[in-house]
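[Automated response] Your request has been received and processed.

Submitted sequence:
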Amino acid sequence: MSPSYDVGAARDTTDLQQILSLQRENLKQVLSTDEMRTQGFVTVQHDLGALEHMHALAPSVVARHGGAVVAYALTMPRECRALMPVLVPMFDLLDGLDYQGRPLRDVPFYVMGQVCVGKEHRGQGLFDQLYAMHRELYRGRYELLITEISTRNLRSMRAHARVGFQVLHTYRDATDEWAVVTWDWSAPVHT
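Generated structure:
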């Protein structure tokens, strides 16, 4: 029997602290090369203040099991661009891109700040459930959900494509090659 999960908006500081704990366990700096290749990884490390600010604007989505956060998908509205200096170049890049003939800066979107499923909870469909909840919560407010993924993170690239994301742009910076992917909520839901 599959474990039961409660997927919904993060509620409080305890949820945010558990997000940070799960994030620390999955940072690329603490994983082996093999783990990164087969299981994926997260790149950016947040702090509680940044998560609290993001949460105040638009709560992130979490999956709980037994009351503990075991997966998360961070909501990062454009108003948060200065919270994470490492992400400012990504936001600057997005400002210069077009989406279906319109400047992206004129399209209502937010950024998936990061998505992570705890190791012992992978393979349960949580990734898709987190994104389905994002769509449910924010579809009336935004047209697009955008994120960037290291093209080396094959597990994440495949999972995002499965949900409905499409590559808008790729580029290389000093650290990696990145794919900017978009999920257009006017498109049909993938099941």
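Summary generated for your ticket: The longest strand covers residues 68-77. The chain has one domain: 6-184.
If you did not submit this request, please reply to this message.
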